[in-house]
């Protein structure tokens, strides 16, 4: 680690502490040349995969866009904000653990639908109608019937 004062490359670590959140490490250092002290922080840098759109263009992943889509589908629905945050965290974790450098919008859409189906059936139908581009009433009815059948099926514990 270079000294920020004299640019000397030999610095000594005097103290190391993990942050209260556990997501970073704070180190107190001393320069071997000018004897000045300074603090450094180490944090995990997570790189989200790029998103490949239907037209083939690539864009950076945007958590704000994901949140906007979920909030639009959940508008005026009785779903608490922490549940939305948890759904976003789940989706982002799946994107990170996929190990892919690029994912298409279809994959993200499927992850969103899984989370919406778990959170709220009406929001799921709203999102699915746009995502799957429903053309007529029959497609809505099929989606509603699918959700209804899953609710009636006994859940395995």
UniProtKB/TrEMBL annotation:
InterPro entries: ATP-cone_dom (IPR005144), NrdR-like_N (IPR055173), RNR_NrdR-like (IPR003796). It comes from the Bacteria. Keywords: ATP-binding, DNA-binding, Metal-binding, Nucleotide-binding, Repressor, Transcription, Transcription regulation, Zinc, Zinc-finger. GO terms for molecular function: ATP binding; DNA binding; zinc ion binding. A zinc finger (unnamed) spans 3-34. Its cofactor is Zn(2+). The keyword Repressor applies. Residues 49-139 form the ATP-cone domain. The keyword Secreted does not apply. Binds 1 zinc ion. GO terms for biological process: negative regulation of DNA-templated transcription. It holds the Pfam family ATP-cone. Belongs to the NrdR family. Negatively regulates transcription of bacterial ribonucleotide reductase nrd genes and operons by binding to NrdR-boxes. This is Transcriptional repressor NrdR. It comes from Duganella flavida.
């Amino acid at each position: 680690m270079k000294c920020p004062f004299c640019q000397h490359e030999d610095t000594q670590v005097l103290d190391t502490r993990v942050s209260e959140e556990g997501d970073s490490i704070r180190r107190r250092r001393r320069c071997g040349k000018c004897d000045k002290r300074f603090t450094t922080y180490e944090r995990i840098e997570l790189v989200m995969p790029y998103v490949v759109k239907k037209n083939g263009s690539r864009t950076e992943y945007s958590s704000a866009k994901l949140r906007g889509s979920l909030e639009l589908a959940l508008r005026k629905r009785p779903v608490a904000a922490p549940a939305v945050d948890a759904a976003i965290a789940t989706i982002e974790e799946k994107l990170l653990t996929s190990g892919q450098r690029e994912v298409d919008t279809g994959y993200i859409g499927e992850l969103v639908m899984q989370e919406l189906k778990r959170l709220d059936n009406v929001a799921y139908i709203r999102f699915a109608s746009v995502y799957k581009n429903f053309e007529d009433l029959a497609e809505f009815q099929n989606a509603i019937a699918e959700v209804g059948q899953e609710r009636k099926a006994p859940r395995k514990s």
